[in-house]
Amino acid sequence: MAKPNLILKNLLLTSAVPLTLADRRLYNYLLHNALDHLSKRLDFVIPLAELAGVYGSGAPPADRLKESLRRLIRTLIEFELPNKKWVVTSLLDKAELDEAKAQLNYSYPLNCRQLFTDAFTLERCLIQAHFTLKYSNLLYEILAAAFYTQQTNYSLEIADLRGRLQIAADKLTNFSDFDRFTLMPAIDEINSYASFAVKYDTTRKGMKVTHVVFTLTGKNNLMQPINARLVLPPKRPRLFIDDPATERAYAHLLNAETKERRRFFDLARKKAAKKKQPLAEELFDRVDTWFRWVA
Q1: Looking at the structure, do residues 196 and 250 belong to the same domain, yes or no?
Q2: Residues near 52 by Cβ (< 8 Å), separated by ≥ 6?
Q3: Where are the beta strands (DSSP E) in the chain?
């Protein structure tokens, strides 16, 4: 198992405006592009063609790219180091969009090097925007914290696990439903992208499942850039939409805040229900699965 080079405590990310899925995806692409040389320099350049798939199926629109970069630069990260030092920095230091050369120049604050010398933090930054299911990121945070503190067998009481996954008391009350719609799909995604593999079993009291026991096994030393690159999918996300007007609508939902996306998701559920094709709540963050109902 890979041990982190540096233990960061009380890591906190704050932003006046919440980051969208597309913002996080953009940051992943920029970090992915910089990984090989981040220990030696802080300034980088990436062709806009390399950002295809961030907002849609084509090159990133300049206006959306600018919006994302503003939010990333304004997003602060706070953390503490073992020597009683407190650090506050930002996700990006500066950005320069050169449309004539079709490239983006960007740089990281010096303190970001400390962030990315911690394997847990590096992996969180690389993969979070590539999860497509609602519970994958929440479960990943739980399991990664255990994995990077050497807990290869990690047991959680069902009530505790449900609470940490933010599942309402009246939702997925049967373990079979909880397993089918939450654990199985989330663990499939975690196993696809994380530097560790997850298996799980249950313990019972009589017929009732009381605990889920996770077994965590290391796959790669994430601090080697070649392995860190493998955290990202081999093919970057590309969308299925060709019509420009429809593409703009999809991009709107992808970048919309939760409240706005909820309005369209509820509309999609109503339309799907009329055709006897119910949409589960777990699909809320999978815009691609329900977009056709509101296109």
Answers
A1: no
A2: 58, 59, 60, 236, 238
A3: 9-14, 43-47, 76-81, 85-90, 94-98, 103-107, 153-157, 196-205, 208-218
Residue 20 domain flag: yes
Given a contact cutoff of 8 angstroms between Cβ atoms, the answer to whether 202 and 212 are in contact is: yes
Q: Quick check: is 236 in a domain? A: no
Rounded Cα–Cα distance for residues 22 and 239 (Å): 13
**Is there a domain that residue 157 lies in?**
yes
Specify whether 212 is located in the same domain as 159: yes
d(Cα 229, Cα 231) in Å, to the nearest integer?
Answer: 5
Block mean pLDDT (10 aa), the chain, length 295: 48 69 81 84 93 75 92 85 82 94 95 75 68 80 87 93 90 89 89 86 91 89 60 46 64 76 89 87 75 82
Residue 253 lies in a domain: yes
**The pLDDT value given to residue 281:** 77
Positive or negative, the CA dihedral 142, 143, 147, 153 is positive
pLDDT value at residue 203: 93
The confidence score (pLDDT) of residue 290 equals 85
In the block, residue with structure tokens 């990333």: 72
d(CA 149, CA 168): 29
Q: Count the domains in the chain.
A: 3
Looking at the structure, tell me whether residues 207 and 280 fall in a common domain.
no
Which CATH number belongs to the domain containing residue 55 in this structure? Answer: 1.10.10.10
For the stretch 173-196, pLDDT in tens is: 889 899 988 999 899 888 877 878
Range of the domain at 248: 244-293
pLDDT of 224: 63
Same domain, residue pair 78 and 175: no
